[in-house]
Amino acid sequence: MGDDGKAVSSYAAKDIQVLEGLEAVRRRPGMYVGGTDVKALHHMVYEVVDNSIDEALAGACKRIDVIIHPDSSVTVEDDGRGIPVDIHPEKKKPALELVMTVLHAGAKFGGEGYKVSGGLHGVGVSAVNALSEYCEVEVKRDGKRHFQRYERGAPTSPVKEIGMAPKGQTGTKTTYMYDREIFKGEMDYRFETLVQRFREMAFVTRGVTIYLQDERDGREMEFYFEGGITSFVRYLNRNRTVLHPIVYVDKEVDSTGIEVALQYTNAYAESVYSFANTINTVDGGTHLTGLRAAITRTINDYARKSNLLKGTDSNFSGDDTREGLTAIVSVKHRDPQFESQTKVKLMNAEVQTQVQQALGEEFGTFLEENPRAGKSIIEKCLTSARARDAARKARDLVIRKSALESLTLPGKLADCSERDPNKCELYIVEGDSAGGSAKQGRDRHFQAILPLRGKILNTERARLDKILSNNEVKALISALGTSVGESFDLEGLRYGRVIIMTDADVDGSHIRTLLLTFFFRYMPDLIDEGHLYIAQPPLYRIGHGKKIFYAYTEEDRARILKELGSARKRANLQRYKGLGEMNPQQLWDTTMDPEKRTLLQVTIEDAASADRTFDMLMGAAVPPRRRFIQTHAHEVRNLDI
């Protein structure tokens, strides 16, 4: 008994549960693939493909095929060496069975099988097997074909020989069906998400072909890049004006392979991506720190040496040297240490020095040998430094000015009475007519309305100082309460949900894209932390007798008319061109009532693709924008989502 008279549960060796092997994965999928959501579903595919990529890194695989079948089972096939099938000397089981059923059993853990490997969580394909209804593996090796099937991780029979392999052919083919007992709810693979990931994999694994086929709708894509990450930089800069040829570094420092490709453009944003063992480390890490430090130091050294910085000018800051920079750093390390299970940040301290050393030497030499390129990079940095200074003054002015104004809130803001930001919503609407309807239709207790007039400034083509002088942007920043750019602070956010509500026409779509560009560039944390949403107003109002239906898509309209049957001839159909056409009650019922509305949450699932879309729609190059808009014109409703 404890002091308070309650029984204390026993805590001894016999009470500690030992989760055996794959049972642990099934009980705690979050530890192994990061959860049971749609992101984890895609992680499973990457995990299997990573095994094939490891074969490619070892020089043994040239082609990887990924097929999504109509029932959402997935096949991954490569032409690597094939997983060994002989009996393991200690475990007395075929190596294939061990790889598929024992965590950490892959060759990558002995240090001999692979010099470097991706393997998303180092748990390999066995975790995928554990989380699958079934998984089948066929291995071509030594002229024979071997096969084994598993159900929820357990083999249904021993590894068996099923015939001869075609002469000279080797490789591994894995087909699995994710377990719907674990991945519950409506979820499926997104072709675009897989395309994005495989494109990156092909860029950072030079000379491998990755083919993706979606049998659900017949789409297919194939990736092969002879130039590796140089091709990646060229791809990212395809709609930008570049200032010099791509600088490429490929070195090995203390058995860490380091590849860097970089190029400056006349854009204002920085596009930098880092990879460790082919995995996109979205939160950066020591390799990214090394890259940035090398660039800043090399540029400052060169500027001083070439007398391009006058004695009075202080050194460039890191921010000055990153404007307009497109760069990829890809490292291959024998023993990568990551911050968390999902491998988004590389932690090996020595990598920073290694990258700094490798890039510093090569970039310095490039600047010496290409004075014209050197001069245009320094000029870019100087302009950036001056603009940053002007922006700081402008920002201070905005903050100082707003401190003097009463409560700093813009006059046009119709605020709500609730003071807990988590319960508050801010609707950003275009124009006064929609603003009027929204102000009357809202729930004043927790919904605030901020009408913006006309198009807000195109933030892709303007620097922060210019943006801050725009009245609409000023109103937006002061309403949100977070400040902007470097002094952005999420703590000050006055509304838990920030909702963009624009018309369903091309103009509305443009304004929505402009707003998204602004948030993406200057308040990315707002998106990352899940505060930004897009309202979905209906496209049609269908009246029949006393009944009213709202259709949010063309499919909705067709379905409602079909349900009305023969009565549809008497139905009154109204197409909403703008929010202002709805009376306040209709706007509340369809778009603002939390019980009935649909909100789309804006995510930066992939900053790279968002960056490219914004760049295409907002950058200076016209032809790709025209091409993009023509291609996507029929989906103009989802232009920016």
Beta strand % = 15-25%
Radius of gyration in whole Å, from Cα? 28 Å
* CATH fold node name of the largest domain: Heat Shock Protein 90
Distance between the termini: 59 Å
Q: Based on the structure given, which CATH architecture of the largest domain is correct?
A: 2-Layer Sandwich
The chain-level structural class is alpha+beta
Mean pLDDT level: 82
CATH class of the largest domain: Alpha Beta
* Beta-strand segment tally: 22
Number of helices: 20
* CATH homologous superfamily designation of the largest domain: Histidine kinase-like ATPase, C-terminal domain
Overall structural domain count: 3
Low-confidence stretches: 5-19, 108-112, 402-407, 628-641
Q: Identify the overall geometry.
A: flat
Q: Helical content, roughly?
A: 25-40%
- Major sheet description: 9 strands, mixed
Describe what you observe in this structure.
Helices cover 37% and strands 20% of the residues. The chain is an alpha+beta fold. It has three domains: 203 residues, Heat Shock Protein 90, CATH 3.30.565.10; 155 residues, Ribosomal Protein S5, domain 2; 164 residues, Rossmann fold (3-Layer(aba) Sandwich). The strands form four sheets. Strands 1, 2, 3, 4, 5, 6, 7, 8 and 9 form a nine-stranded mixed sheet that branches. A hairpin with a 2-residue loop joins strand 3 and strand 4. Helix 8 runs parallel beside helix 10 and helix 12 packs across helix 18. It is flat, with a radius of gyration of 28 Å. The termini are far apart. The C terminus is likely disordered.
